[in-house]
Design a protein that fits this description.
The protein is an alpha+beta fold. It has 3 helices and 9 strands. The longest helix is centred in the first third of the chain and has 25 residues. The N terminus is likely disordered.
Amino acid sequence: MRISDKPASDGRAPANERPGLSGPASRKLPVPPRERKPALAALAVLLILGGALATTLLVLRSGDRVSAVGIVQQVGAGQLITASAIKEVQIADTGIDYVPWRYRSEVETTYAAVTLLPGTLLTSAMVTKSSEELGPGKAIVGLALKAGQAPVGMRKGDVVQVIYVPAGGKGTAQQRVLAPGARVHSVGAPGRSGSGLVSVVVDTAISPTVAAYASSGEIALAVLPGAG
């Protein structure tokens, strides 16, 4: 008996020839529809716009600059603020209580309420109209110091001890502190850099003694870094 090659009498193709059933790869799982979240999308847009606005404001404010008084030389507390100690600086207008550069002539008639260091932006709280240090009861004494009688790098505004150092051959004379907290008023002299000339502010009661010992070369200075 011969097996016929004709299709089945019911008209259906054999199972291995039916379309769509050729293998496991053709069996796909159903994909759920994407769930859209409009609230998150709106939040992302707001964040982007907010960042752009903040950047724009910063750029605009960075160009809004004003002239202020800056300190370029150390000025000790109680000392007069001179023209050489200040300069014009440009800063952003951020509401700081700075002293505008247009008032520089008035600044030059005031005194430092605290020690002013180079790089400081001057504010109204840092200055005063009067100086206790240079007022009644104080005197400025000039010293001509030799090498070793003062620290290297001593500057105007430093607080120092004024020490009596007896010269050789003075018997039992001992060193002693004449002024425990004098202020350096100036260092050097115009056109005489490195000359060893120093002026200090001391009480009037001790100024004659300091001047006398200074004339004989028996004065030394010690800087007090922790003193303001």
